[in-house]
Write a structure and sequence with these properties.
With 252 residues, this protein is of the alpha+beta class. The chain contains 7 helices and 8 strands. The protein has one domain: archaeoglobus fulgidus dsm 4304 superfamily (archaeoglobus fulgidus dsm 4304 fold, 2-Layer Sandwich). Helix 3 runs parallel beside helix 4.
Length: 252
């Protein structure tokens, strides 16, 4: 890391600590504690997909689906150029701004379609300093937010050990979970078998304005396949946008 990146990281550490003071780790909405999530009508998903071989040119994607049917009601794709450096543990400072802009645009132009909860492809509390992308985006947007990662972040004493693999094997059916417990003893998230058809779990953690219990229950209810539908749709549509508008160069 060069001197400039060191200064950026220190500034981001201070900003992250300030944002962390506004983090809410409990349920704040009536629908969150309802057994059937009665009152929940719109769930959002965000993602960034990069042009192959490019590190700064990406498609920022926002989708809003109806609940519980999981039909896309709104989508927007926007090409962005990322200017912030990539520093491990501070990904949100690089990738959250364009996603936040999409949410702000939707709130201004079609407020009736604003999601009541946002799914983020990444971690929330399950993070080096317990403030991952889902927390960052949740606090800045003030939306209930859930982090769902496909790969285990080996952090705070959680690692892909034999014990961890054994716990995964013990997830026999969709909805089964086990805690992601830090060396401190705190539970920072849960591994969830989200689908009977997939033995690989996803890793769920609180982003903002939702409890872990509710975040896990909601993630499971939004899964047709392994990945919750709002994230899956955002990923598919951003990749399709890039394929259509930036097709790979012919090898001929």
């Amino acid at each position: 890391m060069n001197r400039g990146e060191e200064l950026v990281q220190r500034r981001w550490e201070r900003e992250q600590e300030c944002l962390k003071q506004h983090l809410v780790k409990e349920d704040t909405e009536a629908w969150q504690t309802d057994p059937d999530f009665s009152g929940l009508e719109r769930v959002g998903g965000v993602d960034l997909s990069f042009i192959k071989g490019k590190e700064v040119n990406a498609c920022a994607q926002l989708v809003v689906l109806n609940y519980p049917h999981m039909e896309v009601q709104y989508e927007v794709s926007e090409m962005v150029t990322l200017s912030a450096p990539y520093i491990p543990g501070f990904l949100a400072f690089r990738e959250a701004p364009p996603l936040l802009q999409l949410l702000q645009k939707l709130e201004k132009e079609q407020p009736s379609l604003m999601p009541q909860v946002l799914f983020v492809d990444g971690n929330g509390l399950f993070h080096y300093r317990e403030f991952g992308m889902a927390c960052h985006l949740g606090v800045l947007s003030d939306l209930p937010c859930v982090g769902v990662a496909k790969n285990l972040l080996q952090v705070q004493g959680v690692a892909k050990t034999d014990e961890h693999l054994s716990q995964i094997s013990a997830l026999k059916k969709a909805g089964d979970t086990f805690p992601l417990t830090a060396a401190s003893g705190r539970t920072l998230g849960r591994a969830l078998r989200s689908s009977d058809s997939s033995t690989k779990p996803v890793y769920v953690s609180v982003g903002h304005r939702i409890s872990l219990h509710t975040a896990v229950r909601l993630t499971h209810s939004c899964c047709r396949y392994r990945v919750p539908e709002p994230i899956r749709q955002a990923d598919m549509r951003s990749r399709e946008y890039l394929r259509t508008n930036f097709p790979p160069a012919s090898s001929e």
